[in-house]
Amino acid sequence: MSPRNDDDTPRRGDSPRRGTSRDLPTEGDETPDTGRSRGFGGIGDARAYTPRGRTMAERDQRTRSPRAGRTTDPFRPALQVLDGGRPQRGRRPAEPEPPAPSDATKTSDATKTGAKTEKPVRTGQRDPRREPPRSRRPEAAEDDGDELRQRRERAAGRGVRVRDGARSGAKTTRDARSPFAARTRKEAAGKPPGRTIAKGSPAAAKSPAKSPAARKPPAKSRAVRAIAPEPPKLANSTRRLRLGTVLALSLFVMIGVRLVVLQVASSPADAARLVKLREDRISAITLPAPRGSILDRDGTVLAHSVEARYVAADPMLVKNPSQTAAVLAPLLGVAQSKLIPKMTKHTRADGRQSRFEFLAQGVDIAVGERIAAMELDGIVVRQDERRDAPGADLAANLIGFTSADNSGLEGMEARYDSLLRGTPGKQEFEIGKGDLDAPIPGGYQSYTEPQPGNSIELTIDGDLQYEVQRILGEQLRDWKASIGGAVVIDAKTGEVLAQASYPPYNAAQPLEVSPSNRDDVPSGIVADPGSVHKAFMIGAALEEGVITPDSAITVGPGLERGGYPFQDSHMQPKGTKMTIPGILALSSNVGTILIADRLGKQKVYEYQQKFGLGKLTNEGVAGEVPGRILAPDEWSGSASGSVPIGMSVDATLVQMAAGYAAIANDGVYIQPHLIKDVISGRDGKVMPAAEPETHRVLRPEVAKELRTMMEAVVDEDDATGTQARVNGYRVAGKTGTGKRLIDGKYTSSNYGSFIGMAPAENPRFVIAVSAEVPHGTGGDVAAPAFSKMMSDALLHYRVPPSTTPPPKFRIHP
Prior knowledge:
Blueprint: H1 43-48, E1 54-55, E2 80-81, H2 103-113, H3 146-157, E3 161-163, H4 179-187, E4 196-198, H5 237-265, H6 268-281, E5 282-287, E6 294-295, E7 301-313, H7 321-332, H8 336-343, E8 357-363, H9 365-374, E9 379-388, H10 396-399, H11 411-415, H12 417-421, E10 425-430, E11 445-448, E12 455-458, H13 462-478, E13 483-490, E14 496-502, H14 521-524, H15 534-544, E15 552-555, E16 558-561, E17 564-567, E18 576-579, H16 580-585, H17 589-599, H18 601-610, H19 639-642, H20 653-664, E19 668-670, E20 675-679, E21 686-688, E22 694-696, H21 700-710, H22 712-715, E23 732-738, E24 741-742, E25 745-746, E26 750-758, E27 765-773, H23 778-796
Parallel strand pairs: 3-4, 6-12
Antiparallel strand pairs: 1-2, 5-10, 6-7, 7-8, 7-9, 10-11, 12-20, 13-14, 13-27, 15-18, 16-17, 19-22, 20-21, 23-26, 24-25, 26-27
Helix pairs in contact: 7-8, 13-23, 15-17, 15-21
């Protein structure tokens, strides 16, 4: 590639380039190269050569320090202009060489100065004597431009001197060989000296040099100075950050203003519309809480909840309610007419569209899976629970049953419903429209976990309950009884160990029997207690001291009160005297009325209350009735005869059993109760039931005397309760026969009963049995059942037999 024409304008403009190429012979210098210059083509030249006479190596012409390149312009192209397309060897900036002097000139100069003749330096060689001092910044090169020439002339006219090293701090020097310096000195000859300008300033390049060699006009040469290109304009990071901050703040302000408008400035109609839109997308499902169990005293399950299925419908998604109802009705056991309204689109009481309706609950798992396999539109089958009674009819009249939604309806299920059912949960979630009826991921969701209900542990002994029910059923079926009941009470604690009713029913199928047959007879049926009430009158008379165990009462064939005749089943001749045990053993009405006359009606009423009559026992059964007793001011003319013998008295079997338990417990009345413990459904903590109420009715010695005299009812051959005997145990009790009062009228049937305790010397249990039969007495119907029940209870709890024989009694003194 040929050297570039010297007259050509530099590629980057008229201004000279900085950083010229290395030492090249000036124009017109025809001195041939010697061996010291290897010429173009060497390895070093090849490394520096480019097709346009440039090298890709960036050289910092200002300084040789390695750090200099770090402070240079980052947009300066990494190119170095080469003159003639040939690389130079030196690292310092190139400068034009003066023309070689002729031999004559050399001689003349040497003669004038008296110096030795110097050997000429060949072109391409460096003359150390003429080597200018190295500088960290290259000298400004001469340019033929008019603008630069004018600057030089103005600088020369002012006599400006260039001080070398002003910028780098080096010692001031003058390069006599620089053609620019020589020309400046020539132009500035004869002018007054001006101010000194530090080298490196804008005027330093125009400062004249005072070297003698520079007075000669240099040969025409071309010096090129590299010029940094105009750097591109880049984005300002600070400006971008400020602009982004402003945009972000503006966005937040807009959102905040909109929220304020929606929540404060919006009209109630707009707010209601937004709420309505939200509610239409919200689907709510009630999560039933697991219902607590009912257990016996040993933890045996009497009633609990088992896994089942519920079938529900979304009316918005059911396409054909009539057809769907026809399919489900036979499977669910629900009439089609009841299913269609639930599956038809309708609004609830709050004005919202119904999205969930129960069709059936407590469905068998097999039935639920069958319905789910049909994949009916809008029909869902989910896990549910159903109340189950493993014992079927075991204590069914006592426990009761629940509805399809597990709400207690009768018995203890109803009485303790709030305790057993727990707190239902609730799940709300946002759903899509149409076929996208499913929870929206990331949408609104609310879940309230259901709280399980508490379990109840009863005082009932499941094994004893089973035996009592069995014996009662067998006995009453033989006597064709309409209703009957039995109660077993622990005399020392007041706990009800068994409470049976006849007829029983299956708690899993409660609707198959009439409501009257589901009643708990011992706590829900009132009747005249009959002669069992006489023990209370004898006990009160002993307590008040109007009689003693050795007292004798003169009886006759009968008496009349208020126009109503009262007589004995075992009629005695007029003027016959009877002992207190004899009055009990033969159940003398006349003798009891005469003893009550000694007490007075006020005392009779007070002791009726002390024995627990006329008020609820609160043993824990729903539907318990309080019964009724006559206050003294309510007595009629015949009341003084009827009340002492248990007529005109309404009492339940539980009330009478609790009164006898006071006699067995040395005269202390203990409230009968069925609840032993409550077990928390959350953490399983056992919470004992409240202590039963107690109060004293009789003194211990009076209670003992009364128990002993009551043994005559069982032991005497002519007594009314001989069928209540228990082998190996002393038994004390009393028979009774009364009437039931229904709708203000007495029935034609007899209501017989027997209440007793054993062992009589230290009673452990009190058992009361009653039944309504077409004919028969308490001694005939109830006493045999009592005997069997007491025998089982004593053996079940391993109560030792009596060690003393029963006392001997005399009917007549």
